[in-house]
Amino acid sequence: MAGENGMGGKIVTITSGKGGVGKTTATANIGVALAQLGKRVVLIDADIGLRNLDVVMGLENRIVYNLVDVAEGRCKLRQAMIKHKLLPDLHLIPASQTRDKSAVSQSDMIQVSDWLRPEVDYVLIDSPAGIERGFRNAIAPADEVLIVTNPEVSAVRDADRIIGLLEAAGKGPGKLVLNRIRQDMVSKGEMLSADDVTDILAIKMIGIVPEDQFVVPASNKGVPVVLNEESRAGLAYHNIARRLNGENVPFLPLEEEDGFLRRLTRLFSGGNQLLKQG
Amino acid sequence: MAGLLERFGLLKRAGRGGSAASAKERLHFVLLHDRIDLSPEELDRMKKEILEVISRYVAVESDRVDFALEHRRRDNLIVAEVPFSKPKTGTQQVGRETG
Ligand SMILES: Nc1ncnc2c1ncn2[C@@H]1O[C@H](COP(=O)(O)OP(=O)(O)O)[C@@H](O)[C@H]1O
Ligand SMILES: [Mg+2]
């Protein structure tokens, strides 16, 4: 069974312009959430030379081959795909840690994506920071692009630049993930709100992820935070996965509420998915 | 009342005096310039050329001319305010007398 649209899986690139805003964290968590929804998912770390996604996913000790080995024909695609420990339909293709971005080309990325398309529902590509070759490689095969930003002047400015470049490349405008928002600061007028950012960038928002104390411990352990029922960021990533999947998930108050309501939402979304699968 | 709404996060634009307001203002400015992507020299030349064209038809009060960059949503606008006193004499039938 190929993907839902008959043309195979969807290629989604996660990018940002500015570094450190949460691309890798978003890729890992949306990937896990999609797999939890019963989707077949492959994550590609396109940050050649600075690989991270493997450690965030807790798969660093299983790497044999990487994306550069595939691009240079040293191994088959299958051999570079690492299966997740808990979710058998989730795989990672790691980046090389020793090579640089010139080791992979746009056509390599398109080739790899074309091979994966008939096999999976989603390919998520974790883009390196910047607007250079690595970014170009990462967006080349994309059907859809998610732009991660933080509610800060520099991050929003870089996101705007990325949106412009995406539009010029015929890939735009993309959808926005606003990461590390703190409602307490927004209420005090000391942090840009989601409305402010949407107003400035004028693109569609696909997720609002709160600043969350569980994110760092999760990456310490290599267990993405979406697997932690207590985490509000986890719920936000889960909701992004559902929206990506075509569900209409309201933004607020679900991402603001605590405890009970959140668990209820998850329960229902899980149930929906089972029905769809069946 | 406003304080109460603010406390419960119901007043969206609460605390506009805070640093978020300056962040937003500064972003508007920065993005405007990022998006236009023209050097100061090019901008200057463009202004001159626009004024040259207008001056062919009407007498421009050049000391009161104002060019500004603005953006509304994703549209970048060049807004020119060009006060003119009277139709220029000696040009080929341009416009009517303006009051
Ligand atoms: N919502 C969040 N709450 C708290 N910390 C976060 C959040 N998102 C990301 N981080 C932290 O920010 C840092 C940068 O995130 P990362 O995903 O590596 O960014 P990028 O891939 O864009 O460079 C990491 O230490 C990560 O744990
Ligand atoms: Mg990263």
Q: Which secondary structure elements does this structure contain, and how are they paired or packed?
A:
The complex is a heterodimer of chains A (278) and B (99).
Chain A: E1 10-15, H1 23-36, E2 41-45, H2 53-56, H3 67-71, H4 77-80, E3 82-83, E4 90-93, H5 106-116, E5 122-126, H6 133-139, E6 144-149, H7 153-168, E7 175-181, H8 183-187, H9 194-201, E8 204-210, H10 215-221, H11 232-244, H12 259-277
Parallel strand pairs in A: 1-5, 1-6, 2-4, 2-5, 6-7, 7-8
Antiparallel strand pairs in A: 3-4
Chain B: H1 2-7, H2 19-36, H3 40-55, E1 58-60, E2 66-72, E3 75-81, E4 84-87
Antiparallel strand pairs in B: 1-4, 2-3
The complex binds adenosine-5'-diphosphate (ADP) and magnesium ion.
Residues 23-24, 47, 52 of chain A line the site of magnesium ion.
CATH topology type of chain A: Rossmann fold
Number of strands of chain B: 4
Alpha-beta classification of chain A: alpha/beta
Q: CATH first level of chain A: which class?
A: Alpha Beta
The separation of the N and C termini of chain B measures: 51 Å
Low-confidence stretches of chain A: 1-5, 254-259, 270-278
Topology pattern of chain B, helix = H, strand = E: HHHEEEE
The CATH homology group name of chain A: P-loop containing nucleotide triphosphate hydrolases
Q: What's the tally of helices of chain B?
A: 3
Mean pLDDT of chain B: 73
User: What fraction strand of chain B?
Assistant: 15-25%
* Major sheet attributes of chain B: 2 strands, antiparallel
Residues in helices of chain A, as a percent range: 40-55%
Global Rg of chain A: 18 Å
